[in-house]
Write a structure and sequence with these properties.
With 393 residues, the protein is an alpha/beta fold. It folds into 3 domains: 1-98 and 106-125, no CATH class; 127-266, Glycosidases (TIM Barrel, Alpha-Beta Barrel), CATH 3.20.20; 273-380. 54% of the residues lie in helices and 9% in strands. The chain has a 5-stranded parallel sheet with strand order 3-4-5-6-7. The protein has a two-stranded antiparallel ribbon with strand order 1-2.
Length: 393
């Protein structure tokens, strides 16, 4: 709900006034808002068999004043409050689209006792999506959770993995091995869970952790992971046949290490972005740090102390400036190429944000070093002298 509640026009519908991540379920306008959102989605996806209604990490539900009054009046629990709202949203959708099955994230359901969940009226209406994005997810606990939901009367269950995201808020390169292990373990859960209960798996691809965080991996960067994870699911593991299919689809000569796609390889749409992002992510900051922190002329003769005071031995300019200029020219060219590639795929604000987070700070460090060098060199230059007598009054 952050997508909506972060805006001032809808802030009055927050459960807790300062936080835009939970909806106040007691306002009539809240259900009307959710209904309008569902209606807009269904208008664009007529005949959809499933619609995900969310309900993930509703941390502040029950904390608002109206909720506290409800809990006291009804002698109820936060779980009952959550289930009542889910029931209302699901019923709203099914009344208008009876052939569309509502899905919802399961984390708010996990700790609810079986009797309370089974008697809530929710299981006949929705299908839970059990999410876990870890490379070491607990297979036995997921099987037990599926069995619990199955006993509660949910008609179907889903799993949710991730092919990108979930490994770092500002991650730029997708750790493919992590996601492959996650999918391999979900296959184990599917084999050991209740027969025919699992309807499928949702491969999530994160773009942000929430509506206020920075961008994580861009979609073109995550495509090799998506391909590898899909083929792993289809083949029951990353078999030679699965690897061959990934190579063919992506135009890769080999998959010697599925976790690290070589720079400049691949022919799939967006492979140019992947190659440039890989180059920047692996080498830009380290090369700038190598100059600023590893070059003995910079650390010894043009340290932060020297730079603040515009002090430098004139000969040291010749040892520092050419390398700094060369490094800046190299990365400025890469940055321009990457910006052009991103502009072909993303909206301007996304391009600007990604470059500001991952490229421009390093370029500014180089530019500032060169400016400081120029100013220090000018300050160190000897004043011109003349042997002619000064003019008289």
């Amino acid at each position: 709900m952050e997508f909506v509640l972060k805006h001032a026009a809808f802030a009055h519908l927050r459960e807790v006034a300062p936080f835009p991540n939970t909806l106040n379920p007691h306002e009539a306008e809240s259900l009307a808002l959710v209904g309008a959102l569902l209606g807009q989605v269904m208008e664009q996806h007529k005949g959809a068999r499933w619609l995900h209604i969310g309900c993930d990490e509703v941390y502040y539900l029950g904390e608002g004043e109206a909720s506290r009054r409800w809990l006291q009046r009804e002698q109820g629990s936060k779980s009952q409050l959550c289930l009542a709202h889910v029931r209302a949203v699901a019923a709203h959708l099914l009344a208008r689209h009876p052939t569309t099955r509502p899905l919802l994230w399961d984390d708010m359901l996990r700790d609810i006792p079986e009797d309370g969940l089974a008697g809530s009226g929710v299981p006949p209406l929705v299908e839970p999506v059990i999410w876990d994005y870890g490379a070491d997810l607990d297979v036995p606990s997921k099987v037990l959770l599926m069995e619990k939901y199955h006993r509660c009367g949910f008609p179907g269950l889903w799993a949710a993995s991730a092919f990108k995201g979930a490994t770092g808020t500002n991650q730029t390169l997708t750790p493919v091995d992590h996601h492959l292990r996650n999918h391999a373990q979900w296959l184990q859960v599917a084999r050991r869970g209740p027969a025919r209960a699992l309807q499928g798996i949702v491969l999530t691809g994160w773009q942000r952790y929430d509506h206020f965080s920075v961008l994580c991996e861009l979609l073109p960067v995550g495509i090799p992971s998506l391909a590898a994870c899909l083929q792993t699911l289809l083949h029951g593991g990353l078999t030679p046949e699965a690897e061959e299919q990934v190579q063919r689809c992506l135009g890769l000569p080999s998959l010697e290490s599925i976790g690290s796609v070589s720079e400049g390889t691949g022919s799939f749409p967006g492979s140019d972005i992947l190659a440039l992002v890989t180059q920047v992510s692996l080498h830009l900051r380290s090369s700038v740090a190598g100059l600023l922190d590893g070059n003995r002329y910079v650390t010894g003769w043009f340290s932060p102390f020297h730079r603040r005071r515009k002090l430098i031995h004139p000969v040291m300019v010749q040892h520092i400036q050419p390398e700094a200029l060369s490094l800046l020219a190299r990365w400025d060219a890469v940055a321009q190429e990457l910006e052009a590639a991103l502009q072909r795929t993303f909206y301007p604000d996304a391009v600007d944000e990604w470059l500001e987070e991952n490229v421009r700070p390093s370029l500014r460090e180089l530019q500032q070093l060169l400016r400081d060098l120029d100013e220090a060199a000018a300050a160190a230059a000897p004043l011109p002298t003349s042997l002619e007598p000064a003019p008289g009054p």
